[in-house]
Amino acid sequence: MKPNDDTGYKKTGKISPAWLVLPVSVALVIIAGHIGVTRSSLVDTEDASGNQAAVGALDLKTNDIDGVSQTLYATSMLPGNTIGPSTIQLRNAGSINGSSLDIAFSYVENDGNPNSVNKNANDTAGTMEVTTLNYGGSSLLGSVSDANSNGYKDVYDLANAALSGLSGLNVSSTKNFEITVQLRSDTGTDFKADGITLTMTFTLNQ
């Protein structure tokens, strides 16, 4: 995208900061305590607006594509079952190096039917243990605190973690992000049909 008057961006001689935010949504519908169906969808999207700098552009791609959906299905998920490991390849397809990468997590409630006991999103996130969280071949789990003090790292903890200032990507370089989530084996039937949508946001910084 070239700078123009319509975008409100004016080219100057100064080096302006640049960033690109890619939301990647993973929808998890948890069915516990009986044989059922759980689907997990992994969707990659990209918003290219606002990523033009005066001296070049950052262009972070996921799995080497822009704005294309990918779906990962997991069926008959029971307590103890896992989703993943899911691997997302991050690549700097721009013309300038990215000095650092930030990863943020958020979630909203996404329940199935029937849902006899309506657990909230925080309760549900606490049943989803994160067993793998890697970036560039190194585990990030040590940087995630047990925010709800339940003795393990879960999706609730991810949403409260500050994973910023990670190693960036130079032009044309790639790094993999990997995540595995397990429905805790001690999850009770009160969570039957309770679910969340987890959003992972990657920000490549100049």
In short:
The protein is mainly beta. It is built from 2 helices and 12 strands. The chain is 5% helix and 39% strand.
**Termini, distance in Å?**
17 Å
| Computed CA radius of gyration, to the nearest angstrom | 19 Å
Shape descriptor reads elongated
Helix content: under 10%
Number of strands: 12
Largest sheet composition: 5 strands, antiparallel
Widest β-sheet, arrangement of strands: 2-1-12-7-10
**Structural class category:** mainly beta
Mean pLDDT: 70
Q: Domain count, please report it.
A: 1
Q: Helical segment tally?
A: 2
Uncertain stretches:
1-54, 67-76
Secondary-structure element order, as H and E?
A: EEEEEEEHEEHEEE
Hey, roughly how much beta strand do the residues contain? Answer: 35-45%
What topology does this entry show?
Elements: E1 19-29, E2 40-44, E3 52-53, E4 56-57, E5 60-62, E6 82-92, E7 100-109, H1 121-125, E8 128-135, E9 138-139, H2 155-159, E10 163-167, E11 174-183, E12 195-205
